[in-house]
UniProtKB/TrEMBL annotation:
Residues 45-122 form the GST N-terminal domain. InterPro entries: Glutathione_S-Trfase_N, Thioredoxin-like_sf. This is Glutaredoxin family protein 1. It comes from the Bacteria. Transmembrane segments: none annotated.
Amino acid sequence: MLVKALRVGLGQIIVLGDALTRPRPQKRSPQGQAAVNADAASLSLYQFQACPFCVKTRRAMHRLNVPIALKDAKGDPEARAALQTGGGKVKVPCLRIEEAGGTRWMYESNDIIAYLEKRFANVA
C-alpha cells in the first residue's frame, strides 16, 4: 500500500515537472507544419500518463511540434487490448506506425525519439 502511494505520488511529481519545464515547440512554416500534421495522422502513442519514459517521449513530441494521438494503455481497456493484440505485449511507450506496407509497433523511448527526430526534425 505504501509503495503504491509512493509510486503514484512520484508519478504526479514527474508529470508536474514536465508541465513546468516543457521545451518550446519547433517553429515551422505553415506549409511545413501542415505536412507534419498530415504525416503524424498515421501515428499513435500508447502510453501511461505518469511513466517517466512516456513523459520523455511526449516531451520530444512537444519539442518537435508533432501532434501524435495519445492512447491511454492504463485507463482505456480498448487501447490496452489493441496494444496487446497489435504489438504483442503491454509495454509503454509504444508508437504505432501506419504505413503503406502495414502497421509497425515501435517500443523503447530512445528508438521512438530517434524515429521522430529522423522523420520530423528537418521539416521547415
